[in-house]
Structure formats: structure tokens, C-alpha cells
Amino acid sequence: MQRYLWVVVAVFGLYAASSIALEGQWPLAALVLLAAAAFSWSSSPWKGGRTPRHREVMAMPEQDRPVVVYWRPGCGFCGRLRSGLGGLADDAHWVNIWQDDEAAAFVRSVNDGNEVVPTVVIDGLPFTNPDPSLVRERLSA
Predict the structure, then answer these.
(1) What is the dihedral sign for C-alpha 101, 76, 137, 112?
(2) pLDDT tens track for 29-40
(3) Is 77 within the bounds of a domain?
(4) Which of 51, 66, 102, 113 is the least crowded, having the fewest Cβ atoms under 10 Å away?
């Protein structure tokens, strides 16, 4: 259900904004619509653009993919990891599990059937929600 929360928020925001606009409160309606759109975008599967697919990343030579991060939009822990990596975040391969069913299946396979993110694969070993310092250490090596 959480995967489609952005749709619910968008529909509710549109409904609320139109109701407010019908009462003649246009500035408030615009604010509600803007807030709903911002939240919907931040939790939609398309946030961050197209990311590489699990299959594409696994096809790379192992030395070209020392760190692979499986994430999803709206995940606070994923945001904490990305910000904790600073400039090194771009050196990792980020795979959005909401854009790739194979990636989601992989994450479930290493997390007892749960889609726990971030799941980070470092040199072939999966780590669930690792400390950013562990990932930073490998990326800076």
C-alpha cells in the first residue's frame, strides 16, 4: 500500500484544493495543491529519475560495482544514508526497488522476505540499513 500512497495524497489534495477553491479561497487552495503535489512527487516511484536495473548492475564486472544501494522514494533511512555519504553517494550504484521488480525480489531474498531498504551490497555481501561510515569507508577505498 505504501508504494501507492502518492496516488492517494494526489487525489485527496486535488479534492481538498477544489473544495477550498469553490469557497473562493484561491490562495489557500493553491497552497494545498502545491503541498499535495510536493509530497506526491517526493514519495512517487519516479523520484530521482530512472535508476539502473538490478540486471544491469549485476551484468557489470565486480570491480565496477563495489557498492550497490537498493532504495525506494520516501524512505527516511535511504535519505539518511545518501546524506551521510556526502559527495561519495554518486560513486555507488543506486537501484530503485519500486522501478524494478527484480531488485525488489533481490531485497526480499536477503531480508527474510521483507522489502527493507536501504539494502547495500558491498563487495558482494548484503547489509541491511548499514551505518553510512561503513559504506563511506568502502567507497573511499
Answers:
(1) negative
(2) 999 999 988 877
(3) yes
(4) 113
